[in-house]
From TrEMBL:
<keyword id="KW-0238">DNA-binding</keyword>
<keyword id="KW-0804">Transcription</keyword>
<dbReference type="InterPro" id="IPR036271">
    <property type="entry name" value="Tet_transcr_reg_TetR-rel_C_sf"/>
</dbReference>
<dbReference type="GO" id="GO:0000976">
    <property type="term" value="F:transcription cis-regulatory region binding"/>
</dbReference>
<feature type="domain" description="HTH tetR-type">
    <location>
        <begin position="11"/>
        <end position="71"/>
    </location>
</feature>
<dbReference type="InterPro" id="IPR009057">
    <property type="entry name" value="Homeodomain-like_sf"/>
</dbReference>
<dbReference type="InterPro" id="IPR050109">
    <property type="entry name" value="HTH-type_TetR-like_transc_reg"/>
</dbReference>
<dbReference type="InterPro" id="IPR041583">
    <property type="entry name" value="TetR_C_31"/>
</dbReference>
<dbReference type="InterPro" id="IPR001647">
    <property type="entry name" value="HTH_TetR"/>
</dbReference>
<protein>
    <submittedName>
        <fullName>TetR/AcrR family transcriptional regulator</fullName>
    </submittedName>
</protein>
<dbReference type="Pfam" id="PF00440">
    <property type="entry name" value="TetR_N"/>
</dbReference>
<dbReference type="GO" id="GO:0003700">
    <property type="term" value="F:DNA-binding transcription factor activity"/>
</dbReference>
<keyword id="KW-0805">Transcription regulation</keyword>
<dbReference type="Pfam" id="PF17940">
    <property type="entry name" value="TetR_C_31"/>
</dbReference>
<feature type="DNA-binding region" description="H-T-H motif">
    <location>
        <begin position="34"/>
        <end position="53"/>
    </location>
</feature>
């Protein structure tokens, strides 16, 4: 890293540590990631982990949230781009078929959900992200005149999360099978199917 300032080098090391943490959480499991293993994967000295982050747990939290934030943001963008919430849900489900349930992103999310049951700070931070996303989905459903927008948003998110868990057990599952059901749940066309 010749020619870099100390600040640039520090940012580079932090980025390496965060990337390594995201990989290792999915590969080994949240609790199996150690400072030594993380530093080895990042190609840095173990002491730099605690130099750049207050603790290993703080680093793991940040790595996870930095992965979740853009994924949820991209999904929320589908709400804006779609002509109605039912089409947005169909697009979101189509996106979930990119994930196998055993891919790095799925494993990272699954491990994070489990870790959040034991880590109140992680739980609060993840809850904030999910609440924001659920709020965007609820607002989209409300704008379209859905009679129960918050409840429909909660159910939709639970189905999508559960679907990704099940894909880890059976990668042959496809979101296209769920699309008609969730379309009916989120459809606001008064002449459409009964709820």
């Amino acid at each position: 890293m010749p020619g870099q300032t100390n600040t640039e080098r520090g940012l580079h090391v932090r980025a390496q540590l965060l990337a390594a943490a995201r990989e290792l959480i999915g590969e080994l499991g949240w609790n199996a990631v150690s400072t030594r293993i993380l530093a080895e994967r990042a190609g840095v000295r173990p002491g730099l982990v605690h130099y750049h982050f207050e603790s290993l747990q703080a680093l793991l939290r940040q790595a996870t949230l930095e992965a979740m934030r853009p994924m949820l943001g991209d999904t929320a963008a589908l709400l804006v781009a779609a002509p109605n919430p039912a089409d947005a849900i169909a697009a979101m489900l189509a996106e979930t078929d990119r994930y196998t349930g055993t891919d790095p992103a799925s494993l990272l999310f699954i491990e994070a959900y489990l870790a959040a049951t034991r880590d109140p700070l992680l739980r609060d931070q993840m809850n904030e992200l999910m609440t924001d996303f659920r709020g965007a989905l609820t607002a989209s459903l409300a704008r379209s005149g859905h009679p129960a927008p918050e409840e429909a948003a909660i159910i939709t998110m639970a189905v999508m999360d559960g679907f990704l868990l099940h894909k880890g057990l059976n990668p042959q599952l496809s979101a296209t099978r769920l699309t008609p059901l969730l379309r009916r749940l989120t459809d606001t066309d008064r002449d459409g199917p009964d709820r």
